[in-house]
Amino acid sequence: MDLHIRPILVALRRHKAGTVLIALQIALTLAIVCNAIFIIHARLANLSEASGVDEANVFVIENQWAAEQPTAQVDAQVQADLLALRQLPAVRDATPANGYPLQGGGWDNFVTLTPEQTQPVTDSAVYMGDEHFIDSLGLRLIAGRNFRPGDVMVMGTQQAITPPVVIVSKALAERLFPDGSALGKSFYAMGSTPSTIVGIVDPLHRQGVDQWSNGYAGQALIWPLRADDGRGIFYIVRAKPGQLAAAMREAPKALYAQSRMRVIDPKDGIQDYATIRHKVYDSDRGMAILMGIICVVLLAITAAGIVGLTSFWVGQRRKQIGVRRALGATRGDILGYFLTENFLIAGGGALLGIVLAVGFNLWMMARFEMARLPAWYVLAGVLVLLLLGQGAVMAPALRASRVSPVEATRSV
Amino acid sequence: MFRYYLDLALRSLRRSPGLTALMILTIGFGVAASMTAWSVFRAVSGDPIPWKSSRLYVPQIDMWGPSAQVGNNDPDKGPPDALDYEDAVALMRDHRATLQSAMYMVGPAVVPSQPGKHPINVSGHAVFSEFFPLVDAPFAYGNGWSANDDTQRANVVVISGKLNDKVFGGGNSVGKTLDMEGRDYRVVGVLGDWHPQPTYYDVVNAGGFNIDPEDVFLPFNTAISIGMPNQGNTNCNVVPQAGFVGLQHSSCIWIAYLAQLDDAAAAQAYKTYLEGVARQRYPSWAPNVRLRGLMEWLDYEHVVPPDTKVSLLVALGLLLVCLVNTAGLLLAKFLRRSGEIGVRRALGAPRTAIYAQFLTEAGMIGAAGGVLGLLLTGIGVASVGLVMPRDIAALARVDVSLLLTTLLVAVVASVLAALYPTFRASRVQPAWQLKSN
């Protein structure tokens, strides 16, 4: 098919306003859709982040104490609770904890390699648990050993204790000792005494999913401590395979049988990991859906706009089309004319759109801590919009190609 | 004359129902998307205490010194965003503002008096007596406690209406006894409907937005003396000594502070006072203090979730595309009627008449789009909960001002979109049109 671009350009010059409006619309659509899809992709990536937990079988009990007690009394109660939980028929293992991956509680400590260092190497999420922590969460120990019962120390409310041994996540081990020699080395985490790495697990997510912690993703340490906080404690419980529901029913009963002076919120005091994951990524999923809806609406509106304006042009040029047909142009020539015309307009719009998309992304990076938009997103967006334009123009162009040569002889 | 234009517009719209429907849909969707996003943004960025926010201030003092600024991302290198215990107590003792309160978050367990009921966990704040007039908290029954109760460390408590219903079955519970953590507190006041969003008096800990209001308020000094632990964030530069008492002697920050200063001069004087405090307490570095007004503070703490801003921006982008789209379609529609315009102009209609006619037509499309937009906005706001966190979605509401804004935006947007097409239509040369026919 022989496409003549020059006559198309000449004709477009007579429809400057319409051409500019369609091109502008395509440019804006491209800019918004690229950035929206980029947001969707980033949010969906969050949704599938690994926690390291055996999520199908693990649940968390948030247990608060109804009255203040001295640490020794809390510790006795915690030990009794754990014994009761571990004896339940549906339960495989249970651990005390100050927080759990993805969501709740816990804190961060700065990590240094020497006690004098003022500028920390990095930041690590701090988990506390006993020798059952790894099995209760279902973590994968890739090097070294688990804690021994003798390693576990007691920590009261707002006490700061630095145990001599620690298990770290692979991400933290590699950040501190990039040569892979972490096992057996020691570091300081805001204490005056060091902790020696006896084991490495992989992966282990931090307690939160806040954006500020993205730079410290996956960096966590576990200290062998029973966090006997006077306010409350988390029990992380792993059910035997397939017995999650039974274990979640039995656990609070067993705890209340131990003592009634506790508060387990009936609404969200006990949560399985599916619920936790769902809640934590609520806003990410929501943003992805919202951006998806906006993209679909945008593309639909732009396509409809192209159909509308091209239909008008076809209607306006029926006579000229008739003349071309009478002079020997085939249907294919007419179809090709409109497709090429649209391609030129959409191409021009896309060029402007690339600039807008990158500009919009740069601005979002400065204001909202977005990442840089990869080039292939923009290229894919350009391709999608060009195809959308061709698809939208098809119906009016086909109608144009069916204009009979007789039209040339009719007056309007 | 206007009725004539309305009639013309109706005829013209009826002549091309497809194009008309397309324009109405475009305007409707564009307006609804931006209005839904706006309703959420409006809810989260609003002023929680509009009649007073200009007189409320949050003081900050740098108790950590320049060495702690190494990892500070804040370009302003401001002080930490809460106070340590000793600074807070010093400010309370000096009492330089009209009203002021240091406060920290607590989460005690309340043991219901009825036998057989489980203890329930509640959230609240330990505050000073001036807190209630400071935030203009409305009371359903009773009142706050007195300054004397503050110094005497009285076992008194102010509870929310909701907790009152839950524990005492509602009614005037002033004088009744509430068991918290095994201690008895005398109820001195029951709050009325009070649920400021965001929880501006302690955004660092109470977060931005919560579905439930806080349940208990008890005297700060009482809570400290019995060692009721802090439920909010504790942020330390140096690891503190053990226990709650260790925390009180540390430079860890965990206390929020709100002060009322009635005019600019008072605020200036307070800032000078803060500098004096900083110079006296931390002589080894230059005083680094801030005194932010409440709204400035909320902005500084990024209380508005960035997601709502991004959504609003993207929705406005969608509206812009809809505008451009409508402009294109209107251009096509108007120019198609060049013949008609030519006849009207030849018969003596001035350009202003053409303007009036076509802008009326655009306004009608806008109004129709607005009505569709209203419907879609209603659906949008009702289903915000599906895509935004529950606590934020719950704040979005449809009200008269939102409805009016929706209609107004739709009509103004359509008329704006019609400006250029109308201009082109008014330039149609009557002679050319008549000749070519």
Structure description:
The complex is a heterodimer of chains A (about 400) and B (about 425). The model of chain A has no long low-confidence stretch (mean pLDDT about 90). The longest helix of chain A has about 40 residues, at about 330-370. Chain A is built from eleven helices and 13 strands. In chain A, strands 3, 4, 5, 6, 7, 8, 9 and 10 form an eight-stranded mixed β-sheet that branches. Chain A folds into two domains: about 5-45 and about 285-410, no CATH class; about 65-260, no CATH class. Chain A is α+β, with helices and mostly antiparallel strands. Chain A is about 50% helix and about 15% strand. Chain B is of the alpha+beta class and about 425 residues long. Chain B folds into two domains: about 1-45 and about 305-435, no CATH class; about 65-285, no CATH class. In chain B, helix 2 packs antiparallel against helix 12 and helix 14 runs antiparallel to helix 17 (about 400-425). The model of chain B has no long low-confidence stretch (mean pLDDT about 90). The chains are: A alpha+beta (about 400), B alpha+beta (about 425). Chains A and B meet through helix 2, strand 12, helix 8 and helix 10 of A and helix 2, strand 4, helix 9, helix 12 and helix 17 of B.
How is the topology of this model organized?
The complex is a heterodimer of chains A (412) and B (437).
Chain A: H1 5-13, H2 16-47, E1 58-65, H3 71-87, E2 91-97, E3 107-111, E4 122-129, H4 133-137, E5 141-144, E6 153-155, E7 165-169, H5 170-176, E8 186-187, E9 195-201, E10 220-227, E11 232-239, H6 244-258, E12 262-263, E13 270-272, H7 273-280, H8 282-316, H9 318-326, H10 331-368, H11 375-401
Parallel strand pairs in A: 4-10, 6-10, 7-9
Antiparallel strand pairs in A: 1-11, 1-12, 1-13, 2-11, 3-4, 5-9, 7-10, 8-9
Helix pairs in contact in A: 2-8, 2-10, 2-11, 3-6, 8-11, 10-11
Chain B: H1 2-15, H2 17-45, E1 56-61, H3 85-94, E2 99-106, E3 109-111, E4 120-121, E5 124-127, H4 131-135, E6 139-142, H5 147-152, E7 156-159, H6 161-168, E8 177-180, E9 183-191, H7 203-206, E10 216-219, H8 220-225, H9 243-248, E11 256-260, H10 264-281, E12 289-293, H11 294-300, H12 306-336, H13 338-346, H14 351-382, H15 384-387, H16 390-393, H17 400-426, H18 430-436
Parallel strand pairs in B: 5-10, 7-9
Antiparallel strand pairs in B: 1-11, 1-12, 2-5, 2-11, 3-4, 3-8, 6-9, 7-10, 8-9
